[in-house]
Fold this protein.
Amino acid sequence: MTSKERPADRGRRRGERLRDELLREAHEGRVTRNLSQQLVGRAIGLSDSQVSRIERGGHPDVPFVVVAQLLGVVGLQLSARAYPVGGGIRDAAQVALIDRLRSRVSAGFVWRTEVPMPIERDLRAWDAALFKPMLRIAIDAETRLRDVQAVDRRIMLKLRDSGFDRALILVAATRSNRLALREFGPNLRANYPIPSAVALRALVAGEDPGGNSIVVL
């Protein structure tokens, strides 16, 4: 039986694939512009043999900055960003937060964790989700709210793209989180109109909370 792939292994595999794709683009860009490996190497402080080795994949530990330089000197600009996908290492506080909600939710819901987006090659995932006939509720857990507006944007995009009926942001009941919610609360009511206590009572009873909610637990 194949063991479940670890987040670190998945990250390494994806990194290697992206590195190889970028180096192929750098090679194709150099050839298209009729630039020699010697000329490219001189522009970034490498020998032509080093450039050749990198392009052929013979330098698996090529620095990220060098990849960007190789692309830059052939007229290509590297752009990259990271976004939450689920499946990463969770700290004890996040695990405990998710477990607290799960212990309260009615057995009438089907509970699932690490629920992927229904879009091919979209690596995002919900931390958990609740299912009943004609009702799907997505859940993301936040132990510390550092940027409330960024969390809101992320959740709304995932909700749009996943097609779930409801989204819950599960927030740890800490002083700093309450202060953050108090500050941004008025701006969040349009997207999360159901009060925390109302949503939680509905989940305990196995009912539809009636809308999106920020549940403080």
About this structure: The CA atoms of residues 134 and 198 lie 20 Å apart. Strands lie at 110-116, 125-132, 135-142, 166-171, 213-216. The chain has a mean pLDDT of 89.
